[in-house]
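User: Could you go from structure to sequence for me? I need the amino acid at each position, not a summary. Structure tokens:
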């Protein structure tokens, strides 16, 4: 059975059970996927053992797991680019190592031939069972088309993303000059693709499962550095005042804190 898509999972440090759930959800897709797990030099032995153990298993659905060892200077965009450039299929998706996919996620997205296919997400607390109320919104194509700017369109779309490899090649994959966070993969990359006239399709279902938690996650990194990196993104796209300050203010409150904490405050 031929591989239909590639899923890139970058790993720095992750709770073993969460990493295993992420990888297994990628391998258990209803269509066979190539799963590329990008391992950093700092990735702990327990994470590596999980990856090696799962890689050695026999799978009847034709899916494959291939570890990639990242020997360049560490960074989230660098790890994503290694995985994307190593993909052997023409469709590439991203899965973060503390999240997981519904079994039909990739198949539903593959039904569309657009440069960017986006499906909605559900948000759960750290236990992976308790939904975070007020966060679970399916995307709507009618809403996307009504948004007035490319920035707003890019911000509206969410994980899960399935890309055409040729579209990623056209823009040079993920920008490695901004930093690890914020929105390198799900805002800046999407905005750049839209500027290059990428086509978009939306699967109006929540197929990506996001785990909101304390601890290691890019969204919980230095909040002020995140603001500075966002400003780099806005400058790169030529955004002017007053929209520039409005966008920064709208994003700032989400940086450095888990979603449930921000929602409780609101």
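Assistant: Here is the amino acid at each position, in order:
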């Amino acid at each position: 059975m031929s591989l239909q898509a590639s899923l890139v999972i970058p790993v720095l440090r992750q709770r073993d059970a969460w990493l295993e759930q992420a990888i297994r959800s990628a391998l258990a897709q209803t269509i066979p996927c190539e799963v590329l797990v990008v391992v950093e030099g700092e990735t702990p032995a327990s994470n590596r053992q999980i990856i090696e153990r799962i890689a050695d298993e026999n799978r009847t659905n034709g899916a494959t797991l291939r570890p990639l060892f990242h020997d360049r200077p560490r960074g989230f965009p660098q790890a994503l680019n290694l995985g994307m450039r190593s993909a052997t299929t023409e469709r590439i998706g991203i899965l973060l190592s503390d999240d997981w996919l519904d079994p039909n996620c990739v198949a539903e997205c593959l039904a569309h031939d657009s440069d960017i296919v986006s499906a909605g997400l559900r948000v759960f607390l750290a236990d992976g069972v308790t939904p975070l109320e007020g966060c679970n919104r399916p995307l709507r194509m009618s809403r996307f088309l009504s948004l007035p700017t490319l920035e707003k369109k890019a911000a509206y779309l969410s994980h899960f993303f399935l890309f055409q490899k040729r579209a990623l090649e056209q823009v040079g994959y993920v920008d490695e000059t901004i930093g690890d966070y914020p929105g390198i993969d799900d805002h800046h990359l999407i905005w750049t693709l839209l500027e290059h006239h990428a086509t978009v399709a939306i699967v109006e279902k929540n197929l990506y499962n996001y785990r909101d938690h304390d601890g290691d996650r890019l969204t919980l990194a230095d909040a002020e550095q995140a603001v500075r990196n966002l400003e780099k993104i806005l400058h790169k796209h030529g955004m002017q005042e007053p929209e520039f300050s409005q966008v920064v203010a709208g994003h700032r409150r989400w940086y450095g804190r888990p979603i449930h904490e921000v929602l409780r405050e609101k």
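One structural detail worth keeping in mind: The mean pLDDT is 92.
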